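User: Please fill in residues for this 126-position structure.
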C-alpha cells in the first residue's frame, strides 16, 4: 500500500507561484516514478508532470512546460511541483499519484497510476 498526502494549494492571482508537495509512505518511494495530475470542474483528470525514480527523467503536459517543474527528494519521500506564471486555466484540484505496479519509470498515462492523494485545490484568479 502507498499513502500520499498533498499540500501547498491555495488561491493566488495570475502570474503568481505556488509549490505543491506530496509526502509518500508505504512502498519504497525512492524506487518509483511519481506523477502529478489535475482535474478542473466538469473536466476529466489530466496529466501534468511525471518524474522517474532518480529524478533524471521528467515529462510535462504541453500547456505547463516551461512554467512548472517537478522534482523529488528521496531522502524525504517527497515529490514537488513548482508552479510559476500561473494562469486562470491552471485552476483545478491537483493530485499526486504513484504507479499501480512498482516501477522507476516516468509515465504519463493515467491508467498506470493506482495510488492517489486526496488532492489540493489550486485557484488562480485573473
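Assistant: Residues filled in for all 126 positions:
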Amino acid at each position: 500500500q502507498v499513502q500520499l498526502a498533498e499540500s501547498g494549494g491555495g488561491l493566488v492571482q495570475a502570474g503568481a507561484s505556488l509549490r505543491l508537495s506530496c509526502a509518500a509512505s508505504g512502498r519504497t518511494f525512492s524506487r518509483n516514478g511519481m506523477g502529478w495530475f489535475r482535474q478542473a470542474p466538469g473536466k476529466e483528470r489530466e496529466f501534468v508532470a511525471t518524474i522517474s525514480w532518480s529524478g533524471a527523467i521528467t515529462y510535462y503536459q504541453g500547456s505547463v512546460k516551461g512554467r512548472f517543474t517537478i522534482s523529488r527528494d528521496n531522502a524525504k519521500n517527497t515529490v514537488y511541483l513548482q508552479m510559476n506564471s500561473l494562469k486562470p486555466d491552471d485552476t483545478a484540484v491537483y493530485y499526486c499519484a504513484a504507479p499501480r505496479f512498482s516501477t522507476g519509470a516516468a509515465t504519463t498515462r493515467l491508467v498506470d497510476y493506482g495510488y492517489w492523494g486526496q488532492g489540493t485545490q489550486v485557484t488562480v484568479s485573473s
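For context: The mean pLDDT is 96.
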